[in-house]
């Protein structure tokens, strides 16, 4: 009986010593406790953080080139058209004081140049087409002229003298030809070269609207594809309707004189974007 008690006490002492070793020697405890498990299971897993991918900057493609205004589903030239003539040595500016009939020209929309006059609807269509555009439709022209607020003039509903190139201008026919109005006198290249007649495109900062189109009233008449010209010119913006409602229908598509100009339009997305 005594021997049995001694044996039990010895076993308790050995167990106590083993537990003490586990407490005092952590390395042995960890090794003992993981006995029978694979090294891979016991090893810590190293997590590699995922770096955010750097995406290419988003490029916003405009539905219209920068020299055209986006109006509804159309692109409208911001400025009255001028012409460049194409030749073996490249392009050069064409005179805005003579008719382009028989010349290889195309339309451009540029601030700060004298707009083309002496041009028929036929030649205006050809010049727009040469630049991948078309002559403006009557409805889209009028919408662009009235602006987002649909006003009678680009700048508002009430005529403001001098806001556009349409107030107290010199009459070249009176000054040069004693008031004679004929095919010959009205295509005198001196007409728009007189001071206080036509102005360079964009010269009147007030003659625009929220679409950023300029000179759609006054300066030179603008042909549209319904064989009328619109907006009036520097001597008249109210006899055939006021401002953006002005429309002249008295002439055939082949007609031109010192007052007739144009601008081009296109469908949105039909031209390469340059921004």
Explained architecture:
Helix 1 crosses helix 2 (26-33). This protein has helices at residues 2-24, 26-33, 39-42, 121-129, 138-146, 172-177, and strands at residues 68-71, 74-77, 81-87, 90-93, 105-109, 134-135, 221-224, 228-230, 247-248, 260-262, 264-267. Mean pLDDT is 86; it is low at 1-13 and 15-42. The longest helix is centred in the N-terminal third of the chain and has 23 residues, at 2-24. The protein has two domains: 2-32; 69-267, paralog of FGE (formylglycine-generating enzyme) (Alpha-Beta Complex). It is built from six helices and eleven strands.
In short:
With 275 residues, the chain is of the alpha+beta class. The chain contains six helices and eleven strands. It folds into two domains: 31 residues; 199 residues, paralog of FGE (formylglycine-generating enzyme).
